[in-house]
Design brief:
By secondary structure, the protein is mostly helical. 52% of the residues lie in helices and 9% in strands. A two-stranded antiparallel ribbon has the order 1-2. A hairpin with a 2-residue loop joins strand 1 and strand 2. Helix 4 packs across helix 5. The longest helix is centred in the N-terminal third of the chain and has 22 residues. 22% of the residues are buried.
Length: 172
């Protein structure tokens, strides 16, 4: 192995929900180091999400008011996270799209990337409202991020004939 191994930077959980995935979500939304603006977008998005879910639940229970937005976000996010992806591998002068399992942090990174990209692609409203719409769509297994996940899965299924190359070039 050449050079030094790079240690992973530990991300601190966000201040409001004390959750690492929300902190990563804020960091992905952040532009030009303006973290407070990104936090404002995410937290207002969660407030709007809480209102929309409360309004869609027709029950008038007081306990229903205390909906955990984090649970809703996590359920939607689990729907977005990919299981399998394709990676290009060069073997014998030919490039093959080899399906590989997505592991650990990469699932989270890809899910957040797709969620934010599809929210940005929506027209019209502010970023927080676009995120709310995309999260609600993901909760119902619809929307752009889910479509991206399904496209990647379909691509991996189409190339499963090359799955035996996954072990071919790896070193222990």
């Amino acid at each position: 192995m050449r050079g030094k191994t790079i240690s992973k930077k530990e991300i601190l959980p966000d201040p409001k929900f004390n959750n690492i995935i929300v902190a990563k979500f804020i960091n992905q939304i952040m532009k030009n180091g303006k973290k407070t603006i990104a936090q404002k977008i995410v937290y207002e998005c969660f407030d709007i999400l809480k209102e929309k879910i409360f309004l869609s639940d027709k029950s008038t229970n007081k306990e229903q008011k205390d909906i955990d937005v984090l649970d809703v976000f996590n359920k939607a996010f689990k729907n977005i996270m990919p299981i399998i992806e394709v990676k290009g591998r060069r073997i014998g002068g030919a490039n093959y799209q080899v399906p590989t399992e997505v592991k650990g942090n990469r699932k989270i990174t890809l899910g957040l990337r797709w969620l934010i990209a599809t929210a940005k692609a929506r027209k019209g409203k502010s970023m927080k409202e676009k995120l709310v719409m995309e999260i609600l769509d993901a909760l119902n297994n619809a929307g752009g991020a889910i479509k991206k996940k399904e496209d990647v899965y379909r691509m991996a299924q189409a190339n499963r004939a090359f799955a035996h190359f996954a072990r071919f070039g790896q070193r222990h």
